[in-house]
Specification:
By secondary structure, this protein is an alpha/beta fold. The chain contains eight helices and ten strands. It is globular, with a radius of gyration of 19 Å.
Length: about 250
């Protein structure tokens, strides 16, 4: 029996002048499950995320969010609906504190209409503790390392209590310790019923921590498979569209 989908895109098509970027692409995100989104061409996955969040309008296809046909008018609307996206590019203001960056534009306000700084810093510190980060919410964002700043982007998305979280290869700038902290939080989110989409390129991590894999190639949906049913070799074959023995250099 197919599990309930929190987010489902079917038959998505998107063209630009002279290029058909997406050709009847499909994607399903399930509550409490961790999906690896993989494919040779990073632009395909990026375009798909922009169609999902309303940055690009789709030429054809449907988007269902929590069972309802939906079209988002932009990232703010999709975020408020419960879809969080963590991009590789940092979107932080170095001159502001960690807490100010996390809650920028949605600061807590007290009964007098003033910013509730005490609550805001306490909530930010709780997020930092959850991610096992070694700095506090009063620090300026320009002080931590690039890896720590990437973790702050993750903290921002966690603060929205999103039902689906999409991560665009955030581990590239992280240390091994930070990656372990991130995966621990991902397991917590799964247990709470959150659906996780992780745009991956590291085969080892896919096999170790993901529940299922969705493969795109040449602007098309290729397959959705449980990780337990795949070998590393069969996954690469779906990604590149040919047998491994035809590939150079050979993978042992």
């Amino acid at each position: 029996m197919q599990p309930y989908t929190a987010l489902q895109l079917q038959g998505i098509e998107k063209s630009f002048p002279g290029v058909k970027a997406l050709k009847s692409v499909s994607l399903a995100v399930y509550p409490g499950r961790f999906m690896a989104l993989v494919g040779e061409n990073g632009a395909i996955k990026s375009t798909m995320m922009k169609v999902l969040t309303g940055i690009y309008s789709r030429d054809a296809g449907s988007l269902r969010w929590l069972g309802e046909e939906t079209t988002f008018s932009g990232p703010k609307e999709s975020q408020e609906a419960g879809i969080g996206i963590i991009h590789q590019e940092l979107n932080l203001i170095p001159q502001l504190t960690v807490a100010e960056n996390i809650f920028l534009g949605r600061e807590f306000v007290n009964h007098f209409g003033r910013i509730d700084w005490k609550r805001m810093y306490a909530e930010a510190d709780a997020l930092l503790k959850r991610l096992n980060l070694r700095f506090n919410s009063h620090q300026l964002v320009g002080d931590p390392s690039i890896g720590d700043q990437q973790m702050l982007e993750i903290a921002k998305v966690l603060s929205f209590k999103s039902q689906v979280i999409i991560m665009d290869e955030p581990t590239d700038a992280l240390t091994d310790t930070e990656i372990l902290s991130l995966f621990r939080v991902i397991n917590e989110l799964k247990a709470q019923g959150c659906g996780i989409v992780y745009i991956f390129h590291r085969m080892k991590e896919i096999v170790e921590i993901c529940d299922y894999v969705t493969v795109f190639r040449d602007g098309q949906f290729i397959a959705e498979r449980p990780v337990k049913d795949l070998s590393k070799e069969s996954l690469i074959e779906m990604m590149v569209g040919r047998k491994l023995e035809d590939q150079y250099p050979r993978l042992d």
